[in-house]
Amino acid sequence: MKILAIHGSPRTIRSTTRKLAGFVLEGAADAGAEIEMIDLADHRIIPCSACEACSLNGICVNDDDVPPLMARMQAADAIVFGSPVYIDNISGQMKVFFDRLADAIHYQQLAGKFGCAVATTEESGGDDVVVYLSHVLNYLGVVSVGGISVAIGGKAESVDAEEPAARALGKKLVDAVRDGYPDPVQEAVLADNRAYFRSLVLENRDLRTDEYERWVKMGWIR
Ligand SMILES: Cc1cc2nc3c(=O)[nH]c(=O)nc-3n(C[C@H](O)[C@H](O)[C@H](O)COP(=O)(O)O)c2cc1C
Fold this sequence. Notes:
This protein is of the alpha/beta class. Helices cover 48% and strands 16% of the residues. The protein has helices spanning 16-30, 54-57, 66-75, 92-99, 102-106, 126-139, 158-161, 163-179, 184-203, 209-217; strands spanning 2-7, 34-39, 78-84, 114-121, 143-151. Helix 1 links the parallel strand 1 (2-7) and strand 2. Helix 1 packs across helix 8. The model has no long low-confidence stretch (mean pLDDT 97). Bound molecules: flavin mononucleotide.
């Protein structure tokens, strides 16, 4: 079982968000998972230009690091999203990455995986960012098992106080992959998302035949 964390702090190895996501991974590793961390800031990610080329064949006109990042997400059983709070929102690095996942969202390419979200902030906005990251997980068809935000408040050690909770979240992810995580509220959200994207998949059935056939196989199109 593989658990992958992706965080959007430009501070990479000095990042408190990375540290918090790392605690989640360590909890998952203790529970038996193989773990992996991705620093988005170390990757070349060109912003979406809304050319809509990907909607024709699933391939972006930009040649950058997004396809291998997507492959690493596809290979994972669970995904941890982490971001620092930047002006009450996720970091630019994280948002540029998310915009490039539009095709993955439309075709629900990560459906069936589990996830969780972590955020750090100096003072405020951490809970809202966790809610947003969890929302993006759901958009991708991923069921979230929870999230943690930490307000650092000028004390770098604040994040260490959350180590036990973050490790427990990592174990919860592993348990979800092993045993499932029934959540009728999120299941209804995911079903609504699929109902919304179904018309696009039908409209593009001749262009995106593989995706159409996958949707039929999944029972999402009858
Ligand atoms: C551009 C920028 C914007 C920020 N905006 C906020 C903010 O709106 N509210 C807040 O409480 N902290 C804000 N912060 C502080 C960071 O959220 C905080 O230091 C966070 O823990 C950094 O995480 P990192 O070490 O993973 O990069 C901001 C920091 C930067 C650099």
